[in-house]
Amino acid sequence: MTTTTTDLKRITIEPVTRVEGHGKVSLLLDRQNKVRQARFHIVEFRGFERFAQGRPYWEMPVLVQRLCGICPVSHHLAAAKAIDMLVGVDADKLTPTGEKMRRLMHYGQFYQSHALHFFHLASPDLLFGFDADPQVRNVLGVAAKFPDLAVQAVLMRRYGQEVILRTAGKKIHGTGAIPGGINKNLSIQERDELKKDAPKMLEWAVAGLELCKKFTREHLSDLADFGSFPSNHLSIVRKDGALDLYDGNLRAIDSEGKKIFDQVAPKDYLSVIREEVRPWSYMKFPFIKDLGPEKGWYRVGPLARLNTCDFIDTPVAEKERQEFKALTQGKPNNITMAYHWARLIELVHAIEKIQLLLDDPDLQGTNLVAKGTFRGEGVGIVEAPRGTLFHHYKADKNDQITMANLIVSTTNNNEPMNAAVRKVAEQFFDGREVTEGLLNRIEVAIRAYDPCLSCATHAMGQMPLIVEALDEAGTVVSRAVKG
Amino acid sequence: MAKPKVATASLAGCFGCHMSILDIDDRILKLAELVEFHKSPINDIKKFSERCLVGIIEGGCCNEENVHVLQDFRKNCDLLISLGDCATMGGLPAMRNHVPLEECLAEAYLHGPTVHNPAKQIPNDPEIPLILDKVYPLHEVVKIDLHLPGCPPPADAIWEVLVALLNNKPIDLKYGLLRYD
Predict the structure, then answer these.
(1) Measured between alpha carbons, how far is A88 from A370 in angstroms, rounded to an integer?
(2) 3-class SS at B68?
(3) Which pLDDT does position A13 carry in this prediction?
(4) Whether the complex's predicted ipTM surpasses the cut of 0.85
(5) Which chain A residues contact residue B41 at CB under 8 A?
(6) Are the beta carbons of B108 and A50 separated by less than 8 Å?
(7) What is the mean pLDDT of chain A?
(8) Would you say residue A4 has pLDDT above 50?
(9) Domains and CATH numbers, chain B
(10) CA nearest B17: which of A69, A142, A251?
(11) Phi, psi of B82, rounded to the nearest 5 degrees
(12) What is the rounded CA–CA span in Å between residue A25 and residue A40?
């Protein structure tokens, strides 16, 4: 369809910037210049599932994270949890120190990743507008016009990285989580250093949230429909329905809030999830098995998590969640741009959790690793900053991996990102001229999902942006390049 | 005098090296005073429009598009830095070099336990770039002037190198800053 059709026009957009990864967008127009099809292509491929085979299982937590340097901790922990199960240590058998050190690492990761995305990548669109000069519409533009905010952004990210350093041993690609537990505890000195700055970090997270809320409310009439559509939502939740980013069971709801399934244990993920392969993207298209590829696709990430969970177990974030829910009268929120708001509520939640953990003496415990009986198979699921992350491994009696299956957060959002691109293209393309404003609007919609295409292809890169509108003969009728 | 320009790109890497650049923390604001950032994933400049003093590249080459971007950087930058283990040696993505490419594709798109692919089709659309037979380190594709190892290289090492280059001083990295992990 993409190359053989002669009565359709093709527009390509590549690469997209201020997202994390390599990809491009193509639009196909019919004779009336209406958008017939919009596709978001992932253009890199790694092959991890195959080359992991034969490696010893204990390498997985340090190996797999090197698919993605943006949130390596998420891969590190999902792999560690899968390997826990593989060596016969169930989630509830971890020592308190083991589990809490991992949680602290995870919340540190959420704090740095959400701060990075909002302040470094997304805020230029909000602070300067979608049509602003691309030369200033970036983080250094923010630094020039809002110096205090830029310094806060840098220090917030640094704080999250410091938490990771003290739990994983390194800021990027750490080694803290090992099969059955963790390889260090938190010293009193490390704890006190982290505690010192925590109140300020909470204050700044709340201020960032206020900024985002103010922007969303002021522009709600424009944003509510911007790249928005009803969809299913999926995440893990705690047994009592609370938001839990590190551990829990799968829950999926439809666009009206009705449960599709609930409390599906990670080891049973194969009973509910499949991924469709399409020839035009290296990124697969996950769907809920019983609903099929057409109706079963779903969203993951901050917006989905605030839709699926029943409550948040930290006070400031819970108050914010209630305010967020009030916007849609308690129904699931299907507004694409509300991802930013939801993300900042999680930023607040992460620092509240960090503060609670730092007061917990279990972090100074010395019982770090639990032992079990080798099972040879394990599934680990965490909520990564960008959404639900699945790792599944099998190993043989020589401890060598025989099967690796990964469904990464951004892959889950593949169909939703395509839907958002389609919607924005329909809304803003006049059928004739490709403008810089259109290009950036398409990117804004993609950016709302904070896609990490590195993870998604098990690859990474950058996405500049070229859009060409071709007529039926393949002649360029309009061309726009960003940058 | 105009500030020297720096461009960055991530090819077949994980973006961890770019994260390590950001880990110079508040020195990034100082760096922004010393240099001007040209084409980079952190801004919206997508094409070279001016000559750059330094090009910093993370990741090796795994597809034809990586090769084009790398050649474009060579053409437009006075100095190219291979940043991190993937750029200097291929890194983790090069683990596929000992497995035939077809087997990697078959595992991901045909055999995985969650795969739904009734047509048994492996992605092959002309919109997606051709994958190279192997993953190549950058210096096997173009001339590279400086190699900075590490997975990722420590933020302090990146800072030391940039400051030395901008001041026309020799690079003198302490033992702990040069590492292969």
Answers:
(1) 9
(2) helix
(3) 65
(4) yes
(5) 17-18, 20, 461-463
(6) yes
(7) 87
(8) no
(9) 5-96+132-174 (3.40.50.700)
(10) A69
(11) -80, 115
(12) 4
Cβ contact, residue pair B105, A286, below 8 Å: no
d(CA A481, CA A446): 18
Enter the pTM of the model: 0.91
Nearest residue in chain B measured CA to CA from A276: B116
Q: Spell out where A14-162 has E strands.
A: 23-29, 35-42
Q: What is the pLDDT of residue A14?
A: 62
Residue A94 to residue A79: CA distance in whole angstroms: 15
Cα nearest neighbour of A65 on chain B: B14
Contact status, residue B142 vs residue B70, Cβ threshold 8 Å = yes
> Given a cut of 50, is residue A457 above it in pLDDT?
no
Residue of B nearest to A25 (CA): B127
Question: What are the two backbone dihedrals, phi and then psi, of residue A37, each rounded to the nearest 5 degrees?
Answer: -155, 135
Q: CA–CA separation, A370 vs A73, rounded Å? A: 20
- Please tell me the predicted confidence (pLDDT) of residue A3: 39
Q: Quick one: average pLDDT of A210-231?
A: 90
Among residues A161, A186, A187, the alpha carbon closest in space to that of A174 is found at A161
- d(CA B35, nearest CA chain A) in Å: 12
Percentage of chain A modeled with pLDDT above 90: 63
pLDDT tens per residue across span A358-381: 999 999 999 999 999 999 999 999
Report the distance separating Cα B74 and Cα A233, nearest Å. 45
pLDDT score, position A469 = 53
Whether pLDDT at A96 is above 60: yes
Residues of B in Cβ contact (< 8 Å) with A464: 39, 46-47
Beta carbons of A104 and A357 less than 8 angstroms apart: yes
Contacts of B155 in chain A (CB under 8 A): 171
* Among chain A residues, CA nearest to B36: A140
Q: Tell me the backbone φ, ψ of residue A443, rounded to 5 degrees.
A: -65, -35
Q: Quick one: which of A172, A173, A167 has its CA closest to A193?
A: A167
**Tokens at residue A440, please?**
């950036």
Q: Do A47 and B122 touch (CB under 8 A)?
A: no
More confident site: A426 or A451: A426
Given a cut of 50, whether residue A5 has pLDDT beyond it is no
Beta strand A387-395 with A401-407 is: antiparallel
CA–CA separation, B11 and A483 (whole Å) = 19
Mean pLDDT of B121-150: 92
